[in-house]
Amino acid sequence: MTDDAISSTEPPIAIPLGDDADTTRIGAALGRALARSDVVLLSGGIGAGKTALARAAITARLARVGRTDDIPSPTFTLVQIYEADIPIWHADLYRLSVSDEVYEIGLDEAFETAAVFIEWPDRLGAATPARVLKVELDFGPKGEGRIAVIQPLGPGWAPVMDALKDAI
Ligand SMILES: Nc1ncnc2c1ncn2[C@@H]1O[C@H](COP(=O)(O)OP(=O)(O)O)[C@@H](O)[C@H]1O
Ligand SMILES: [Mg+2]
Prior knowledge:
Rossmann fold, binds magnesium ion, alpha/beta
């Protein structure tokens, strides 16, 4: 195998999310497919559905171990941590003041050991991992529904992308 093939990424896919149920279904499929050190960057404006997608994913993965935790938005806490069969971190970096806080809250370590969802990932700056799943959420035409554009960067995303395609 060439270096090129090892580092090659899948092409992006656009998934229309017509309503809340679509967001929940796609989020659940994502949550079930994740492994440790999978980092999901959730971009999009306020109300685009970043928290809704992460909540669906975390809920589905916790169900695997019989847990029914509430999944609050981490807007004020910066990070919420869940123990499913693997650890899951859910961060909202909107209020991050200095990028050093990324290290203070231990996100760099979580990138290696947990599945991680990050809202407002532009705040990561230089701490952004090289291997990430970028999820860009946008409002649909006329403000109805949402569209998710999903772009894997780095190797090893095929199982996640396959699970997402199966859930469309
Ligand atoms: N596919 C969809 N179509 C319409 N509304 C949606 C869809 N998915 C989620 N929503 C709604 O949009 C809002 C998204 O809020 P939230 O997830 O908190 O956004 P963000 O975290 O991006 O600021 C919620 O009210 C949710 O019910
Ligand atoms: Mg949010």
